[in-house]
């Protein structure tokens, strides 16, 4: 297969029908080296059915490997074909075809492997009987013998008689060469690979022959069939070769074609004109500077010259042996083929290792991408093509959507439903508070938004990627035009049409049972990058206002700076233990589900909520952003016409998450007294406490009624079938009853095992056994996938595999460890028992990385590979989580970390995980004797407002910095800026900071010792002291500050922190 599928003559064909393909032992797929030229259609796993038992053999009941597969040329329009798997040995391909460009009709291609003892020929007869008036091509390994194709003297068998009956019944003609062997082994040969066509196709037959000129390395000869028919060709999508961009030409064309227009008083028409001009100029510059990519299906970048020469030599010797049949020629051919195999294997191994190393050098993000590729690299059936979708017909019966337009309509109905009307009666007379004022958008905000956009993200309809905008914003005229354009958009409440167009990509949801349902897919909007920059700026401003002015409920945690799922889960656990300790033995948690959360957003209600939360200044622009949107649905087989999307908010926009936080904030606030609501973007849960499950279910029932009122006002739809109910019961007081929650028209059963929330599996006893088992299972799957990267002769290097394991598998396996592993509370024996399954996973990984025997001691493997023991990993992660939670935003700190509970409450309910780290002796947050007091800083979500530019920071080499310093100092004192020098140092275990000016006025600060501070903190403290001394000084020479202020420091780390101020670490 490998040699066959790399032959240029094979790569030029339209359809390859293979029987008995090579079987991958690790994955249900076959070899596919021609991914650029062919779409592999490999049948999914099936349990054998309908196979006749062979006398003397046991019936196989296990999964059956595929006996057939198809390779379909990617030149054929994918919207014009479909493939049906009749069985593992029979595929039916439906093609649109024409003769001389006329009379487009259906053509059915049957790929058959008549496995001995199977009923494949009966299935062939049945499928052809269902399609009597169309044309057929039947090809495959028939395993049938008859003189009609085998030549005189061929013994007739039952399979041949059955095949002849099918030919007569369906008017098929045999076009294979009579008597020419299609199978040979040693001295045996026969004709069993046949090609049949409908009699109406014989006039269009050009040739059918054994392809002796094609290298195949098989005991079956390939057969070539050529018909004078046409298939619709795919419109080849062109892409740019961005690596070959001539940036000098690009900049020159932009500067020549672009002009800065004053849009301070512009109307929507002028804004639209300026936006179109900007995009046209950029596109024209791209046309002039960036060529189109010209990929070739023939090239293999991993082959070197030696490999190419070896392939040519093998082909030459094979042709020679085919002519002579000389044993010596066969020996030469075999030796050359073996040498070629070794060379190709070595070249592919070297290239594979190089690519793995390049990805690893990108950091954790690259390693996660590599691991995802390893998990998903199996050749799924119809991968890269959307299967036929089940839709409801006019009579209520299921029908199949097969064409591109039909599938697009099915997705449109599923992704963009008409939401129920929202009850807006409470908005008519509402008195809105004074809105927050925002200044105009600054150049700094535009630069920051563009730089934060990831370079590898897919562009929108205009095809301009983020990586190009990273270069374009370095052109001054681009920044000036964007500043005028963005400010005009916000000021007038208008969004250009270019910003409103998108492409909706259809992605499969993981773990779904039926991918013929449109709901098994997720829509992601690919927006034009230029519009996304403006949306990112507005989203940043809203986020800043939310955190600065406390516009959201404290329990609405998702999508907020400095808050993670760890915060949410630990807060839930704290509330459970607090309730138990105060005498409420039952805490019930109801997980809600909002159907199509983003798709059903009511625009009028969202705008009302923005005004209500003091964001009224942005409402005109947000309204323009929501209205007049349109999209096209992209599928691998095509992209139909554009259609409007008048409802919801687009998934994929930077502003959508923060808008939805504001949209459903009322749900978190309005579920009644005695009910605690937690929100995580579109996930919400209700928590109540009581003396019995009956009491808590009554409270939840009342809260659900209020949630339904919220849904009525917000045009949202809850799906009670997806609700999950967990009763957390303190078994020291009461026994669990697992009381269900009865709602209108539906009953929610209480879980007895565990329910998933924010990636954690919560069980009623808070033992987290299910969570650990799921984590072990997931880690095992990842290790199995990564095994394909770790071959000892061709896989990634040992150091590369070690880094992948530490960056991918360990975080995946130990996710949420601070919740389910409590070293401060449990005994050492239980700690060992808890960690043992994870120790086993690490040993498997160590054996995989090093190639060691399974009997090797885990301690020896850890030592040789420099892998810390799992217990060390777990303890470290628990302590890091404790510090991160304690120093996070104050509203998200778990309650027991802020206030110590009475001892009797802890004894009755037990320690919470973070409570033990905070207050228990030996915890990582307790203050050892003689050290700093128990005081922890809290991180701020924003160090400064988004529109405030950081100070100008210049980092230079020593010699350059000295020259710059001398140049500034040598200026006339009347024109010279105010100059200060700062430093931080550590001497004899003491840490200090100082600041001094040219008049030798200085300040200094003692910051403690090595246990309480660092030299890095002292460097920052010195800069702070310099600024404070300037502000507080009344000396006359400080008037030089009007010329500017220059601070010289020697810490690059401190200067970089000032250059890009982010959320500080906390300590």
From TrEMBL:
SUPFAM superfamilies tied to this protein: DNA/RNA polymerases, DNase I-like, Ribonuclease H-like
Limits of the Reverse transcriptase domain: 488-762
A GO term for molecular function: RNA-directed DNA polymerase activity
Record flagged with keyword Transferase: yes
PROSITE patterns assigned to the protein according to its UniProt record, in alphabetical order: RT_POL (PS50878)
A Pfam family assignment: Exo_endo_phos_2
Keyword Glycoprotein: no
Keywords: Nucleotidyltransferase, RNA-directed DNA polymerase, Transferase
Matching PANTHER family: ENDONUCLEASE_EXONUCLEASE_PHOSPHATASE DOMAIN-CONTAINING PROTEIN-RELATED (PTHR33481:SF1), REVERSE TRANSCRIPTASE (PTHR33481)
Name of the molecule in the record: RNA-directed DNA polymerase from mobile element jockey
């Amino acid at each position: 297969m490998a040699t066959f599928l790399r032959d240029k003559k094979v790569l030029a064909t339209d359809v390859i029908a293979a029987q008995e393909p090579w079987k991958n032992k690790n994955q249900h797929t076959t070899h596919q080296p021609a991914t650029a030229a062919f779409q592999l259609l490999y049948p999914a796993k099936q349990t054998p059915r309908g196979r006749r038992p062979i006398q003397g053999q046991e019936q196989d009941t296990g999964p059956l490997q595929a006996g057939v597969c198809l390779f379909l040329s990617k030149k054929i329009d994918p919207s014009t074909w479909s493939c049906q798997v009749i069985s593992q040995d029979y595929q039916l391909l439906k093609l649109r075809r024409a003769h001389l460009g006329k009379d487009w009709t259906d053509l059915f291609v049957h790929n058959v492997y008549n496995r001995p003892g199977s009923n494949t020929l009966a299935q062939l007869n049945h499928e052809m009987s269902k399609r009597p008036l169309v044309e057929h091509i039947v090809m495959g390994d028939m395993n049938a013998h008859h003189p009609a194709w085998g030549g005189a003297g061929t013994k007739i068998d039952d399979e041949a008689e059955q095949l002849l009956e099918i030919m007569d019944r369906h008017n098929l003609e045999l076009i294979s060469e009579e008597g020419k062997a299609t199978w040979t082994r040693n001295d045996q040969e026969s004709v069993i690979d046949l090609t049949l066509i409908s009699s109406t196709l014989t006039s269009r037959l050009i040739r059918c022959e054994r392809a002796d000129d094609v290298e195949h390395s098989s005991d079956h000869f390939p057969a070539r069939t050529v018909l004078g028919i046409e298939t619709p060709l795919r419109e080849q999508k062109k892409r740019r070769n961005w690596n070959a961009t001539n940036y000098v030409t690009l900049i020159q064309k932009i500067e020549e074609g672009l002009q800065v227009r004053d849009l301070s008083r512009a109307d929507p028409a002028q804004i639209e004109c300026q936006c179109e001009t900007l995009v046209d100029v950029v596109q024209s510059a791209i046309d002039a500077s960036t060529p189109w990519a010209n990929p070739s299906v023939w090239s293999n970048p991993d082959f070197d010259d030696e490999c190419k020469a070896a392939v040519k030599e093998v082909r030459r010797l094979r042709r020679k042996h085919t002519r002579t049949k000389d044993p010596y020629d066969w020996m030469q051919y075999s030796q050359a083929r073996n040498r070629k195999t070794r060379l190709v294997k070595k070249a592919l191994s070297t290239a594979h290792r190089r690519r793995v190393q390049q990805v690893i050098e990108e950091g954790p993000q690259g390693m996660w991408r590599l691991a995802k590729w390893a998990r998903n690299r199996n050749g799924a059936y119809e991968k890269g093509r959307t299967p036929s979708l089940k839709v409801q017909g006019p009579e209520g019966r299921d029908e199949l959507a097969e064409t591109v337009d039909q599938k697009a309509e099915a997705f449109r109905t599923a992704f963009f439903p008409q939401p129920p009307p929202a009850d807006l009666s409470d908005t008519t007379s509402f008195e809105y508070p004074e809105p927050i004022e925002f200044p105009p958008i600054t150049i700094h905000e535009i630069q920051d938004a563009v730089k934060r956009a990831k370079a590898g993200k897919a562009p929108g309809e205009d095809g301009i990627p983020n990586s190009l905008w990273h270069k374009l914003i370095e052109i001054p005229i681009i920044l000036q035009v964007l500043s005028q354009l963005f400010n005009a958009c916000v000021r007038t409440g208008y969004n250009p049409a270019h910003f409103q167009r998108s492409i909706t990509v259809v992605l499969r949801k993981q773990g779904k049972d039926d991918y013929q349902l449109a709901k098994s897919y997720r829509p992601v909007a690919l927006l034009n990058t230029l519009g996304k920059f403006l949306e990112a700026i507005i989203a940043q401003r809203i986020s800043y206002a939310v955190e600065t002015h406390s516009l959201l409920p404290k329990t609405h945690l998702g999508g907020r700076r400095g808050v993670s799922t760890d915060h949410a889960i630990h807060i839930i656990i704290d509330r459970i233990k607090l309730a138990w300790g105060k005498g409420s033995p039952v805490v019930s948690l109801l997980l809600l589900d909002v159907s199509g959360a983003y798709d059903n957003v009511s625009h009028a209600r969202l705008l009302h909520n923005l005004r209500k939360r003091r964001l009224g200044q942005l409402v005109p622009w947000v309204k323009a952003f929501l209205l007049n949107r349109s999209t096209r649905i992209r599928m691998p087989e095509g992209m139909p016409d554009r259609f409007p999307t008048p409802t919801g908010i687009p998934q994929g926009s930077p502003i959508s998450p923060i808008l939805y936080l504001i949209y459903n904030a009322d749900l978190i606030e309005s579920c009644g007294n005695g009910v605690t609501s937690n929100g995580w973007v579109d996930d919400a849960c209700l928590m109540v406490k009581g003396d019995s499950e009956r009491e808590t279910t009554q409270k939840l029932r009342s809260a659900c009624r209020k949630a339904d009122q919220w849904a009525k006002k917000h045009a949202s739809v809850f799906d009670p079938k997806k609700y999950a109910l967990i009763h957390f019961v303190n078994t020291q007081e009461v026994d669990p009853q697992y009381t269900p929650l009865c709602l209108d028209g539906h009953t929610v059963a209480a879980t007895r095992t565990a329910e998933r929330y924010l990636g954690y599996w919560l069980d009623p006893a808070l033992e987290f056994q299910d969570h650990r088992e799921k984590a072990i299972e997931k880690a095992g799957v990842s290790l199995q996938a990564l095994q394909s990267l770790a071959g000892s002769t061709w896989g990634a290097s040992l150091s590369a595999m070690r880094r992948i394991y530490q960056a991918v598998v360990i975080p995946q396996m130990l996710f949420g460890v601070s919740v389910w592993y409590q070293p401060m509370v449990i005994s050492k024996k239980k700690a060992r028992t808890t960690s043992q399954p994870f120790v086993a996973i690490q040993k498997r990984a160590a054996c995989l990385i090093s190639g060691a025997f399974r009997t090797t001691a885990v301690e020896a493997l850890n030592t040789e590979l420099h892998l810390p023991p799992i217990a060390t990993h777990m303890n470290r992660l628990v302590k890091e989580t404790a510090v991160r939670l304690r120093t996070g935003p104050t509203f998200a700190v778990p309650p027991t970390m802020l206030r110590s509970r009475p001892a009797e409450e802890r004894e009755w309910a037990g320690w919470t995980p973070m409570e033990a780290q905070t207050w228990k002796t030996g915890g990582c947050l307790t203050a050892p004797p003689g050290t700093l007091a128990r005081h922890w800083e809290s991180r701020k979500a924003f160090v400064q407002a988004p529109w405030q530019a950081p100070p100008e920071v210049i980092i230079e080499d020593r010699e350059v910095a000295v020259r710059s310093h001398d140049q500034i100092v040598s200026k006339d004192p009347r024109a010279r800026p105010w100059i200060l020098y700062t430093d931080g140092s550590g001497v004899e275990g003491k840490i200090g900071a100082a600041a001094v000016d040219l008049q030798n006025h200085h300040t200094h600060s003692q910051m403690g010792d090595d246990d309480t501070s660092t030299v890095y903190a002292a460097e920052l403290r010195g800069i702070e002291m310099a600024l404070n001394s300037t502000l507080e000084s009344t000396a006359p020479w400080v008037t030089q500050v009007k010329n500017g202020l220059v601070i010289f420091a020697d810490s690059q780390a401190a200067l970089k922190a000032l250059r890009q101020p982010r959320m500080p670490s906390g300590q």
